[in-house]
Amino acid sequence: MKFTKMHGCGNDYIYVDGMKESIPNESEAAIKLSDRHFGIGGDGLIIIKKGTIADFEMVMYNADGSRGAMCGNGIRCVAKYVYDHGYTDSTNFTIESMGKIKYIKVFTKNGKAVSARVDMGSPILTSKDIPVVCDGEKCINQSVTIGDREFTMTCVSMGNPHAVMFIDESVKDFDLNKYGKIAESNTALFPDRVNAEFARVIDRNTIEMRVYERGAGETLACGTGTCATVVAAILNGYVDNEVTVHLLGGDLKIEWSGKEDDSVIMTGPAAYAFTGEVEI
User: Fold this and answer.
1) What SS3 state is found at 216?
2) What is the pTM of this model?
3) Got the DSSP string for 57-100?
4) Which of 6, 138, 147, 236 has most Cβ atoms within 10 angstroms of its Cβ?
5) Using the 8-state DSSP alphabet, how is residue 126 labeled?
6) What is d(CA 154, CA 167) in angstroms, rounded to the nearest whole number?
7) Can you tell me the distance from the alpha carbon of 139 to that of 128, in angstroms, rounded to the nearest whole number?
8) Is the distance from CB of 207 to CB of 233 less than 8 angstroms?
9) How far is residue 172's CA from residue 268's CA, in Å, rounded to a whole number?
10) Distance CA 136, CA 125 (A)
11) Which of 71, 77, 134, 139 is an active site residue?
């Protein structure tokens, strides 16, 4: 089976052209191929297919084989792949993932897509729809105990659940593996588990963030998590409406008006790492 390794800000997935290749058991393949010692290595597997309600479809699996509803970095890479491989000659098109349609604009250089702007849709803030167990209808700036430490938490869904905690220390010095792992697996608080973001506000237009992703552990970037972090920061009055987020793997630009029904707009890079063939 032919594959392409791609990444958005270091959030790396194995991409398979589902319009040419067939994978018998996608979930099992994701586990096998994502293993960084015995497989190709990656944060998961993404299969690119022809869309039924959009131009293209992204079928995304986490490294543990669980199905993912949305991947912000992944969808930019899918956009780059379909444009670069001539599946579309338009710089504007749509990609669906688990029934949700995202609107894409790619930016090109020398005939190849180098970055993409994605309308990620409006954030979901109602606690039961995220889902998170919370006293209020919305979970904004709520106190939560994770392990031996108290945090203030704001929860947002961008098609998948996120719990955003703002901290004072540099995120590079933060023990993400400890606190992120505890939060991600706390099903009493997060019935469907959660993506845990720990962020520090630098100024009104800049945030730094690390993420412990549901089903993958720490990744170098998370597109939906970056969107959720900016939404949380705006809701708490920490930042303005256009924010650059520094992630371990690079920067993403996020825009949101602050109005609940308005879309969150994400802009960032997409790049190839390598191509190859593998037996599954």
Assistant:
1) coil
2) 0.95
3) EEEEEETTS-EES--HHHHHHHHHHHHHTTS---SEEEEEETTE
4) 6
5) B
6) 12
7) 10
8) yes
9) 22
10) 11
11) 71
What is the rounded distance in angstroms from the CA atom of residue 35 to the CA atom of residue 42?
A: 7
Which residue shows structure tokens 């994502």? 34
Catalytic residue among 9, 77, 222, 227: 222
Encode pLDDT of 24-47 as tens digits. 999 999 999 999 999 999 999 999
The helix/strand count (H/E) of the chain reads as 4, 18
Q: What is the pLDDT of residues 175-217, one digit of tens each?
A: 999 999 999 999 999 999 999 999 999 999 999 999 999 999 9
Strands 217-219 and 250-255: unpaired
151-164 burial: b if 16+ Cβ within 10 Å, else e:
bebbbbbbbbbbbb
* b/e code 82-105 from CB counts within 10 Å (16+ = b): bbbeeeeeeeebbbbbeeebbbbb
222 among known catalytic residues: yes
Taking the alpha carbons at both ends of the chain, their separation in whole angstroms is 7
Considering only CA atoms, which of 111, 65, 70 is closest in space to residue 215? 65
Q: How far apart are CA 72 and CA 11, in angstroms?
A: 10
Q: Is 258 exposed, middle or buried (0-12, 13-18, 19+ CB in 10 A)?
A: exposed
